[in-house]
Sequence to fold (487 residues):
Amino acid sequence: MPESRPTTLGELRASGWTSVPVRQELRRNAVARIRSSEPLFGDVLGYHNTVIPQVENALLAGHDMIMLGERGQAKTRMIRGLVGLLDEWMPIIAGSEINDDPYAPVSAHARALVAEQGDATGIDWVHRSDRYGEKLATPDTSIADLIGEVDPIKVAEGRYLSDELTLHYGLVPRTNRGIFAINELPDLAERIQVGLLNVLEERDVQIRGYKVRLPLDVVLVASANPEDYTNRGRIITPLKDRFGAQIRTHYPLDAGTEMDIVEQEAYLGPGPADATGTADAAGVPGTAGLMVTVPEFMNRIVVALTRAARSSPHVSQRSGVSVRLSISNAETMVANAMRRTLRTGGDHVVPRVTDLDALSSSTAGKVEIETLEEGREAEILQRLVGSAVLSVFKDCVPPDMHRDVVDAFEEDLVVDVGDDVADADYAGLLAQVPALTAPVQVLLAGDEAAESPAMVAAAVELVLEGLHLSKRLNKDAQGPRAQYRSR
Fold:
């Protein structure tokens, strides 16, 4: 709150403050961001050359927007991020329910107050975070929720029904001079969508049979899922026509961007700086003394699994495969690695291929299997995981290193892996099978913790599983354990 802020209408006039429509305010602040090369949404990745330019155009044009895209494409995050383009503080008539402009009040209460008190009218200051309203569209949403309704309490206090002061304003008027968002707009009943027509075109609201017209200054932003947009519900044509910009979002175009999103959004446990305290970075007790390191190739496997699901004919693509799948799978993978490390008495948590078996719980609710494939969910998931591991193995381990490892297994070598196999056992395997050293070093190149037995164990498991999936080694799985042997 500014310390020397005006507290009356007269002081506000003397200060030189000018009132501008919210669209001009957004445009002015967007221009400053663009000119200084400051990102419009600092925590939204992968849209720099695709979606963000469309949003900037809509802001500069002063358009209402509808963001169309599958689940997990940062639509709501971008909508909420628009609040940062509003001025930090804004003056309103003191006590106003709908953020009345001190120079041009629209509500009966504010008009009467200014007429009575003139320049002595009190001024309140509203922070930009309070100038944002949001409603998740549901079939039971009513006009009263969005626009307003008669307040029976005010009627009981003695006011006449014809008195404008008996009205209780809805969410849209209460966001006057701000941004109002409707999530999943197609789920809003069509008769309720009609109530938004005036807001978008004539910029006013009309409540029941009252002769009251409130010229609102609101930027309306909506989100919609294409599947809902065409099947479960629809946006009525007159309403869709009133949105100035329809912006299509998308999933990350490359695996690197999706990995960056996972690293930004997922909680992957305490790192070196958190390992000595009594609580980890998220304030969760009980992990003191543990350090979590996630090898790059394990994060790549998680992302490759998601991308494989997006192209799988066995997975329904109508509602998409969200980036949240990558985030949840990364967190589950680390959680299983932490549980395994705690049981074996270690202190360095490093996920490995063995931990990928735990991803069924975090994947089941985020992918929809095609109807014809019902009953084969576990098999389909196993295939997706296998294809992800194989693709990362082929990308990371040069083919000329495969032959020596396979030859070592020709001498009746058998290697056990599993939850109960200690990290040190994998480190000892390198001395037994020198051919594993080269691919392990390639996988761990540039990693500060490359000498850690836990990191070595993760790299060894990827090499063995990759050779198995390449049909160079056999694998016998029995419960939590598996054995690799020559074919």
